[in-house]
Structure formats: structure tokens, C-alpha cells
Design goal:
Number of domains: 2
Largest sheet: 7 strands, antiparallel
CATH architecture of the largest domain: 7 Propeller
Helix content: under 10%
CATH superfamily of the largest domain: YVTN repeat-like/Quinoprotein amine dehydrogenase
Radius of gyration: 32 Å
Number of helices: 0
CATH topology of the largest domain: Methylamine Dehydrogenase, Chain H
Oligomer: single chain
Strand content: over 45%
Structural class: mainly beta
Number of strands: 39
């Protein structure tokens, strides 16, 4: 097995490497190498450029790789003695593959070990005089005859680094730069098998995520069943484990009136509060009813809604039931709530129900649909949207609700965005639809699974699905969606 590596004598060079394993090289295979030029005197430094070469009649066991992908050469203790012209460095080999180097069975070192051989140079790059390698372990035929090499006798396990060998170069008095390229030749237990594993996705957890809230682009929360809390502070999602209360609840929604004041609500009338440090739980007076939405005008004015026309309010001390609006059936399940301020609050639910709170009383509003409404969100008191079953979308302009043209017939479960011309609704079968201030349009489904929460740039769903948006929706590698099988037709078709 041979691995192409080009190195400077002062620092390790890196190339832009693909994340997929590099296959066996066929005849006339292009081999990517680096040619590095280092400055010896006065101005230490190195510049590297990548070059491609074509080889003929390579053996079938030859594998062409690249530095910092298959192996890394490490240079230490670099010295140059001007009186003798000796340039010296301690060089070790780090194995970046998932197979051991220098062994055929993974446990016993082979006679040839791991050999780092010179494919070109060392040669003068600047100045005058000669450059030569003064202490190779031997000369062999690898890709050509007469190639000097250094041998590392002990096998090198995956992620391990060999002991250092001293490389000496003899430089003429006026040499200021020189360069060389090297490759690595070593047996492996299974040369034709996989040499690298790359993590494509590493899910945080697989519980269904059901609701989310965004305070700032670097403070986003998601909640789900079985006591699931996730938080994104700008560098990816992390699991938050609540402490200070007992029980495991199926959370449905979360909202914060400030960066240190959050309420999450769950099935069974359960409510959990987080003040930035401490978690506490509270229970609605209607303890058996599922809660689906929560919104707050301030830390002393939260409202939650749920099954059977449940509407509860928090005053900073305790939760109490609110008087429901007249004319709405008590069997109506309320699914979502949003407010612009303490006197403009909307809640939506079954059979097209829309109710409005003016700070004093709740009243029913005339809806333009009988479809179940599942979410409500707006950018002002006179620009409010609600979405729901079978793709229904309705809009409130401050006076009346009207039905909008929807690009989907799938259920829309959640609504959110960054402004009046950037609104997203997500729903069943991975549905994502966008409003640009003029019309709604749909984008291709990325996952095909049910999505249940959306804020600016992020969406969540079943099986711990986490989506991100940047010119298009992508599935985050932190998603917990189970993978049960994998098959590859080629290195570029998996």
C-alpha cells in the first residue's frame, strides 16, 4: 500500500481532501501530491502547491492518498548547522486510517514496516549549491528505481504516531531553499477494504420534537416528548437536562418573555419554568388537559391554551383559568397562541376557531375556514397568519380574516419567520412553504417526515429531526432520525 505525501522540512502541509475514501489507483491514475518549498535562512517559512502526476503500470495494491488524510508526517527538533551544512529533523508518522500500517494481520509488524520514500528531491529551490539526503535506511524500487527511504519498523495503529526517526540533509554553503516529495509504502491487513470512516450524522436524540422558540439567533430552544429540551446558542444543538423537578412530560410548546424567563407546557396540564438557572414545575388547575401553546407578554403575564377550550394565565405567582369566549364549544381544542402585545393576543384551534384577547376578555372572531387551525403567528397586530389542516392558510389584516392561496394540501403544523416578507410554515411529509410578502410557495421536501416547529433559519420534527436553512433546507447531522441500512453503488452514489 502506498500513500502519496508531499512535505516541507519545517512544517506539515495540508491539502483540501474529500471526505470520501480514496479508492485503489488504476493504471494511468492521477496522483495528487504536494510540492513544498521551505526557506532555510533568515526568513523561515514554507509555501506549498498541489501538483498532479500520472503514473503507468501501478501494482493493484497501490493506494494513492494525501497527507493529512491517510497519514501525517510530523517534523520536530529541526536544526541547521551552518558550519557543517547539516539540516536535521526528527520525523514521525501519524496513521489517520482505520487500519494499522506496517502489518498484514493487525498485530505483528511486517519485515518491511512502514517506509517513507522519496519520489523527487531533495533538490535546490533557491540559492546555490547541492542538496542531498545523507542518512537513508536504504534504497528501493517503489514507483521507480533507486528511491531512498526511511523505515519505521513498529506497526502504527489507527490514530497512533510512530516514534521519530532522524532525517539528515547535507546542504551546500549557499542553499537557502530546498524541496522534496515523499510517499508512504506499507502493508495493511485489508488494503482493498475501507480505510476511513466519516461521521455523516451523529444524532443527539430520537424523541419527537414538538415546539420551538427563538429569542435571538444565538438562543433557540426546542422541546419534545419524554422531557426533551434542546438549546442552540449559535454553535449547534445541545441537550439540556432539566433539574429541580420530577416527572417526564411530553412537552408541546415553549416561550420566553425574556432571555432568563421561559415556560414550557406539556400534555396533562404540566408546566415547567426556567429562570436561566433553576427549573421548577407548576400544574394547571385543569390538570388532566393537554396544553399545546404558550405565549407571554411579560414575565408576569403568560397565557397557555389546550384541549377542551383550556385557557390559563400566569400572573407571576400562579396559574389560574381564564373565562373562555362565548359562542365557542367547550369541546374545542386550542392548538396555538401568539400575541403582539398584552392587548392583542390570538389563539386558534379546531374547526377554524379563532379567538382574540384584548387584555380584558376573550372573544370569538369570524374565521374564513372550518379546517382545524394548528398554529398562529404574526409580525404586528394587523398582520397575523394562521395555518392548519389540508394546507389551509388564513390572514388577519387588523379588521377581518381572509383565506390565502396555499401551495400545499398537506397539514401545516407550525408557523414562524423573521419578518413580513420572510414567513415559513412547515407540516406533514416534510412540507415547507414560504411567504415572501406577496405569495406563498413550496420547496422540495428534504426528509419526508412530519415537521412541527419553525423559527427563522431552523425547523424541527419527528424522530429528533433538526433542519437548518441557508438558501435551502438541509437536515442537520445532529438529527436523531434512525438509519437502518446503507448501500453504495459507487464512491459517489451512497
Amino acid at each position: 500500500m502506498r500513500i502519496a505525501v508531499a512535505v516541507p522540512f519545517l512544517v506539515a502541509c495540508s491539502a483540501s481532501d474529500p471526505s470520501a475514501p480514496i479508492p485503489h489507483s488504476p493504471e494511468r491514475a492521477p496522483a495528487a501530491v504536494l510540492r513544498c518549498v521551505a526557506m532555510v535562512r533568515n526568513r523561515p517559512g514554507v509555501t506549498c502547491s498541489r501538483a498532479s502526476i500520472t503514473r503507468r503500470n501501478l501494482r493493484t495494491d497501490v493506494i494513492v492518498g494525501r497527507k493529512n488524510y491517510d497519514v501525517t508526517l510530523n517534523f520536530s527538533g529541526v536544526t541547521f548547522t551552518s558550519g557543517t551544512g547539516v539540516f536535521s529533523a526528527g520525523v514521525s508518522v501519524t496513521n489517520l486510517m482505520n487500519q494499522a500500517l506496517g502489518t498484514t494481520d493487525g498485530t505483528t509488524s511486517s519485515a518491511s514496516g512502514t517506509r517513507v520514500f522519496f519520489t523527487s528531491g531533495p533538490s535546490l529551490a533557491a540559492g546555490q549549491g547541492t542538496v542531498s539526503l545523507s542518512n537513508p535506511d536504504g534504497v528501493g524500487t517503489f514507483t521507480a528505481s533507486g528511491q531512498p527511504y526511511f523505515q519505521y519498523a513498529t506497526l502504527i495503529q489507527p490514530s497512533a504516531t510512530s516514534s521519530a526517526r532522524t532525517w539528515n540533509f547535507q546542504l551546500g554553503d549557499s542553499v537557502s531553499e530546498f524541496a522534496f516529495t515523499v510517499e508512504v509504502d506499507a502493508p495493511m491487513p485489508a488494503e482493498g477494504s475501507i480505510r476511513h470512516w466519516t461521521t455523516i450524522r451523529q444524532g443527539l436524540q430520537s424523541n419527537a420534537l414538538t415546539g420551538m422558540w427563538q429569542d435571538t439567533p444565538t438562543d433557540i430552544w426546542a422541546v419534545g416528548v419524554s422531557n426533551t429540551f434542546l438549546r442552540n446558542t449559535g454553535s449547534g444543538w445541545a441537550i439540556v437536562t432539566p433539574t429541580g423537578y420530577t416527572g417526564s412530560f411530553d412537552f408541546q410548546a415553549i416561550f420566553g418573555a425574556s432571555s432568563t424567563d421561559y415556560w414550557a407546557v406539556a400534555n396533562g396540564g404540566h408546566m415547567v419554568h426556567y429562570n436561566g438557572t433553576t427549573w421548577t414545575s407548576s400544574t394547571s388547575l385543569l390538570t388532566t388537559r393537554n396544553l399545546h401553546g404558550v405565549w407571554g407578554a411579560s414575565t408576569t403575564n403568560y397565557i397557555t391554551v389546550g384541549d377542551s377550550l383550556t385557557i390559563d394565565q400566569y400572573n407571576g405567582l400562579l396559574w389560574t383559568p381564564m373565562v373562555p369566549p362565548l359562542g365557542v364549544a367547550t369541546t374545542t381544542d386550542l392548538r396555538g397562541i401568539w400575541g403582539n402585545d398584552g392587548t392583542h393576543i390570538f389563539a386558534v384551534g379546531d374547526n377554524g376557531t379563532v379567538i382574540f384577547y384584548n387584555g380584558l376578555v376573550w372573544a370569538a372572531q369570524t374565521s374564513t375556514t372550518t379546517q382545524n387551525l394548528l398554529a398562529v403567528w404574526g409580525t404586528s397586530a394587523t398582520n397575523v397568519y394562521a395555518v392548519g389542516a389540508n394546507g389551509v392558510i388564513i390572514h388577519y389584516n387588523g379588521t377581518a380574516w381572509s383565506t390565502m392561496t396555499s401551495p400545499t394540501s398537506n397539514n401545516l403544523n407550525a408557523l414562524g419567520g423573521s419578518g413580513a416578507s420572510d414567513i415559513w410554515a412547515v407540516g406533514d411529509a416534510g412540507t415547507t412553504v414560504h411567504y415572501n410578502g406577496t405569495s406563498w410557495s413550496s420547496s422540495a421536501s428534504v426528509t419526508g417526515i412530519s415537521l412541527s416547529g419553525v423559527v427563522s433559519g431552523y425547523a424541527i420534527g419527528a424522530y429528533g429531526a433538526l433542519m437548518t436553512y441557508s438558501s435551502g433546507w438541509t437536515l442537520s447531522n445532529q438529527s436523531g432520525i434512525p438509519v437502518n441500512a446503507i448501500w453504495a453503488d459507487s464512491p459517489t452514489d451512497v
